[in-house]
Amino acid sequence: MPTQPLARLSAAEAVFNAIRADIESGTVAVGGKLSSEASLSQQYGVSRSVIREALRSCTALGLTVTKTGKGTFVVANKVANDLTLGHYSAGDLTEARPHIEVPAAGLAAVRRTEDELGTMRHIVAAMITETDPESWVALDSSFHAAIARASGNKVFASVVADIRGALAFQSETLNMVAARQHASDSEHQRILAAIEAGKADEASHAMAEHLRAVGVALDSILNH
Amino acid sequence: MPTQPLARLSAAEAVFNAIRADIESGTVAVGGKLSSEASLSQQYGVSRSVIREALRSCTALGLTVTKTGKGTFVVANKVANDLTLGHYSAGDLTEARPHIEVPAAGLAAVRRTEDELGTMRHIVAAMITETDPESWVALDSSFHAAIARASGNKVFASVVADIRGALAFQSETLNMVAARQHASDSEHQRILAAIEAGKADEASHAMAEHLRAVGVALDSILNH
DNA sequence: CTGTCCGGCTGTCTGACAGGTTCACGCTTA
DNA sequence: TAAGCGTGAACCTGTCAGACAGCCGGACAG
Questions:
Q1: From the centroid of its chain, how far is CA B169?
Q2: Among residues A126, A129, A222, B99, which one has the fewest Cβ atoms lying within 10 Å of its Cβ?
Q3: What is the mean pLDDT of chain A?
């Protein structure tokens, strides 16, 4: 790449870099909320337009999600490499997930390391005590991603990481959480138990059942 | 189209999607210049702020660059996605592909458009007369990618596009081609016929059989 | 050929209003 | 009285209109 003579940054670029740095360095945690546009505007000494353009850049890179009336939330601490096809629809996800996560769960039961098991245990435990829906959803996607990684197959791991990003963009997910949280918790525990026990069929089955239940719940919301 | 966006798009998102589509479809050529913010604003019937936010998103994705006093120029027709290519092992691919491509073939049989069918026919026809192994492999991956796109599910389309990149880097595939080319051609024809006929089960079955055969052939080479 | 000027474009600011979200306060009801 | 309800205020994002400065390229005059 040809290095160009240090172009002077526009204010919007400077603000974007600052916010991005805050996110990638962990100064603002994943799941956390950024200050409001108005206060960022004051903090950086620029107008709200500039702040909004910077936030758009973050959103385009998949780092943040902005919700009307609520604020801007951090959903990833690094740029994902799956931006090519845009975001998946809820229908696409519901349709595709079983084909990927069910076999992944089966493989995870056979291949998981102790470290991976520890991660999963930690996540499931945290979910049970978590009351904030946004945080819970973040943990949920972490759990599914952890299983895919534990499958030892990078294709599965990559797809689920993809899906994880897409889920964060779907507000339906959040709406569904309140009703599904308890049921999901126990379903997760069953999946984890099967993976711990090294029982592939059970893990696959538990995952299939979980995804089916989630699909039904989502469906009832979307067609309500 | 079975699955469509369920979430209401904000104006900025809608404009972003439109501009991105123009770029990715080639309506605006790489190297070309977009209309000025003012005229885009008029064209889409939104304020300049909205246009600027959409352009920021394009810039963040690396599709465009904006130069003060000159305008916004297209520098790429797709989002760069360098990080995932070629990361998957042959074993990962053999293991994961059936779980994705088999259901995708089934869906394609039900959802494919005439255009997509035409593309697939063209590819299969070209493969039969193709003698150069490299070109044949390129067509092969195009065929699999076309089926995934025709499934109408972006998750499947994305994964197979990914896999396609990885396949091109695997020399085993090339070594295998000589022996498999003829068999693959007829397997492809069977898959295509089932998709043309709209028979989902047959399409899935033909794809499963094809992938199994490929897997066996690959295995015999790797363990030789 | 050169220097100047003008028209077009981006960068940024200000101020305003609509509509979504949250929460507490006060009123209703069992 | 206590639990529940709803209603409005405060805060937030989404969008708009208008304005001005600075950059860029080309036209035009010297």
A1: 17
A2: A129
A3: 80
B81-86 mean pLDDT: 41
* pLDDT in the model for residue B1: 28
Domain ranges of chain B: 11-74, 90-222
Q: Is it the case that residue A60 has pLDDT exceeding 50?
A: yes
Within 13 A of B135's CA, how many CA atoms are on the CB side? 9
CA B215/CA B209 separation, integer angstroms: 10
- Which CATH number applies to B90-222? 1.20.120.530
Give the contacts of A122 (CB within 8 A, at least 6 positions apart): none
Q: Which residue of A has its CA nearest to B3?
A: A91
Strands (E), B48-189: 64-67, 71-74
Which sign does the torsion angle of CA A31, A36, A42, A47 carry? positive
Q: Which of B7-11, B42-46, B176-180, B200-204 has the highest mean pLDDT?
A: B200-204
Nearest nt to B55, CA vs C1'? Answer: C10
Reported as a single tens digit per residue, the pLDDT across A81-140 is 554 444 577 778 888 999 999 999 999 999 999 988 988 898 888 788 776 666 677 778
Contact A52 B53 (CB under 8 A): yes
B154 contacts in chain A (CB < 8 Å):
85-86, 88-89, 92
Q: Is the CB of A42 within 7 Å of strand C?
A: no
Residues B190-210 have a mean pLDDT of 96
Tell me if A11-74 shares its fold with A83-222: no
Tell me which architecture the domain covering A11-74 has in CATH: Orthogonal Bundle (1.10)
Looking at domain A83-222, its CATH class is mainly alpha
- Whether residue A88 and residue B155 make contact (CB cut-off 8 A), yes or no, is yes
